[in-house]
Amino acid sequence: MNMDRKRVWLMCASMLLLPCAAAQADEVSEGVARATEIIEAHRKPPVYTPAGEAFDIAAVAKGKTMLSIPNTSSNQFLKGIITREIAVGKEIGLDVREWENQGQPNQWVQGIEYAIQNKIDIVDLISGVNPAVVEPQLQAARDAGVKVFTSHFYDPSQPASPLLEGDLPVSFYKQGWLLGNWMVYKTKGAANAIVVKTDEVPPTGPLVQGIRDAFEKNCPNCTILQEINVGITEWGTKIQPSVQSALIANPTANYVIPIYDSMSQFVVPAVELTGKSETVKIATSNGTPFVLDFIREGKVEMDIGESLDWIARATIDGYMRKLAGLPMPKDIGVPYYIFDASNVESAGIPAEPNKGYGDEYVKGFKETWKMQ
């Protein structure tokens, strides 16, 4: 609770006047109104905006190869992006490959070494591969002429490694801001949250701060009851029992927030097994298809969607601009779109990574790439 708010509450307590209770009620209702406005703005279908001037992407991509290294190949969000990168690569003449791994840093090292040995043009460290862990390999890649980028990894507030050729950040803070305001909106200012996170991934910090700031600014009565930190390689073994224990220890909890939606496959059974499906809701972020299916099945309440196909196109667009000598976008530029029970069927049954966002962005990219 900030000092100004604390001062108001102490004054009210000392004066014991009814107007103070009314003032507190006004603060809650005003915060809910602000949160509602924020949420409604992200229910509108997303709009494509070019990242820069039009260019002949096929001419730049011709004969080039790109190796995408996810933090782990078991992450369905990243798997979906790479699948779309491979497909988009075929459209423009770029040979895209995945470096399969199980989330071990030595496997990321091996992937970069493979790229150097096989004269791969571009390495894409996608969402979770921390450049700080592979700095010797980044230097070796630079010396060998292999261009290493990161995508969907840093928050814009975080400086990228100077050993990278370029970076396409995404506002993880905004994801947290939206998650926090969703809870304010849905509970009418009475959210009690358990947050599941992975601190080893640098953008986790800004994302969780976004949740905290949403509560601080729009919800005096909302709180994060517990934060559960689970390493990437431990999601499958530790998330479910940790969430079950947290729900038992915090009976007033009404939300569990797995900040990356692939965590949901372990959170859903934890909520179900504790018998709290009616009172504890799950809201998350990324828009991975299987989690959108969870929404349709009533197991997850909301997911902040990012079109995996849109991410793939924006990633390739940014890298090809750099290779063409054009300015690289300041961020990945993929808009957020809230999915809940009211619109989730637009993503398909079962959900697909490129449905629910319209198709204007595909036309937009093709025009920007001079493919029409």
| Strands ordered across the widest β-sheet | 7-6-8-9-10-11
Distance between the termini: 55 Å
Largest sheet: 6 strands, mixed
Number of strands: 11
**CATH level-four homologous superfamily name of the largest domain:** Response regulator
- Tally of individual domains: 2
CATH topology of the largest domain: Rossmann fold
CATH architecture of the largest domain: 3-Layer(aba) Sandwich
Mean pLDDT, as a whole number?
93
Unreliable stretches covering 5 or more consecutive residues = none
Oligomeric state of this protein: single chain
Give the CATH level 1 class of the largest domain.
Answer: Alpha Beta
Number of helices: 13
Secondary-structure class: alpha/beta
> Which term fits the overall shape?
globular
- Binned, the helix content reads 40-55%
**N-to-C SSE string, H for helix and E for strand:** HHHEHEHEHEEHEHEHEHEHEHEH
User: What's the Cα radius of gyration?
Assistant: 22 Å
Strand proportion = 5-15%
Features:
372 residues; alpha/beta; Rossmann fold
Q: What is the element layout, followed by pairings?
A:
Blueprint: H1 3-15, H2 18-41, H3 57-61, E1 65-70, H4 76-92, E2 95-98, H5 105-117, E3 122-126, H6 135-144, E4 147-151, E5 166-168, H7 172-187, E6 192-197, H8 204-218, E7 223-229, H9 235-249, E8 255-258, H10 264-273, E9 281-286, H11 289-296, E10 302-305, H12 308-323, E11 337-339, H13 360-368
Parallel strand pairs: 1-2, 1-3, 3-4, 4-5, 6-7, 6-8, 8-9, 9-10
Antiparallel strand pairs: 10-11
Helix pairs in contact: 1-2, 2-7, 4-12, 5-6, 7-8, 9-10
